[in-house]
Write a structure and sequence with these properties.
The chain is α+β, with helices and mostly antiparallel strands. The chain has 3 domains: 43 residues; 143 residues, no CATH class; 40 residues, no CATH class. Helix content is 33%, strand content 9%. It contains 9 helices and 8 strands. It has a two-stranded antiparallel ribbon. Helix 1 packs antiparallel against helix 2. The two termini are 46 Å apart. This is DNA-(Apurinic or apyrimidinic site) endonuclease 2 (AP endonuclease XTH2) (APEX nuclease 2) (APEX nuclease-like 2) (Apurinic-apyrimidinic endonuclease 2) (AP endonuclease 2). It comes from Durusdinium trenchii. InterPro entries: Endo/exonu/phosph_ase_sf (IPR036691).
């Protein structure tokens, strides 16, 4: 709807210019109002404070991994209004990000297999809709009731694109039956992983305060029995 409105306004402006150049009419047309209209129609829905915070983070040496690899991608969302079947119209928001240190990103990040395009132009909104709906395999919920359609095996398997095409940086389109969100991914190459010997490291344990919390079974233990200790997990 937004795209149609912008196209209509653009056509209207071109029509006025054409007729004016032919001398058939003289219309006063406020270009600034057209520009303001277009900007208002494309204004993000996020609060200004959130946008400013994200801009500060990115200006501080971080990169949005998705936008860095796919700056021209259209319609690539990670969340839709499932109650109104917006995923099947691909009207949503990209609210899930992987922010990476810029230097680290340049050294190790890779697009891999790229965006799920279903054989179409990966940057096009048509490809985004096809990816979100598994090229029509995923069906919307009926408005007469009954909820989300049952998850069929072929629809469940469709999310594992990496099995055939390889891993990638981008969006992993999980089935609508699992969540109104989908996953995001970042492919890293040539990263030296530290050995998993930090489980008893003091700094690691301080980062896991939940290990000292009581479990439900602790409330049923004898008072003179100290609660069981949990083993720390490396992060």
């Amino acid at each position: 709807m937004r795209r149609k409105a912008l196209i209509s306004m653009t056509k209207l402006l071109c029509n006025f210019e054409s007729q004016e150049s032919q001398g058939s009419i003289r219309a006063s047309f406020d270009r600034d109002r057209i520009v303001a209209f277009e900007m208002q129609r494309s204004t993000p829905s996020s609060a200004e404070a959130v946008r400013l915070w994200l801009e500060d983070v990115l200006a501080g040496g971080m990169v949005d991994s998705f936008a860095e690899f796919y700056p021209k991608a259209q319609g690539r969302f990670t969340c839709w209004d499932q109650y109104r079947n917006r995923r099947h119209e691909n009207e949503g928001s990209r609210i899930d990000y992987i922010l990476v240190d810029e230097t680290f990103f340049k050294r190790h990040a890779s697009p891999g297999a790229g965006l799920d395009s279903r054989g179409l132009d990966a940057d096009s909104p048509t490809a985004a809709l096809a990816a979100a709906t598994y090229d029509g395999l995923s069906q919307p919920s009926p408005f007469i009731g009954g909820g989300v359609p049952p998850l069929e095996e072929d629809e469940y398997i469709a999310q594992f694109r990496a099995d055939k095409e390889g891993p990638s940086t981008g969006i992993i389109y999980t089935p609508q039956q699992l969540s109104d969100h989908v996953a995001v991914s970042l492919l890293l190459r040539k990263v030296a992983l530290p050995s998993a010997t930090l489980s008893r490291n003091a700094a690691t344990q301080r980062c896991q305060p939940h290990l000292s919390s009581k479990r439900i079974t602790d409330f049923f233990s004898r008072k003179d029995t100290p609660p069981l200790k949990r083993q720390a997990v490396a992060v």
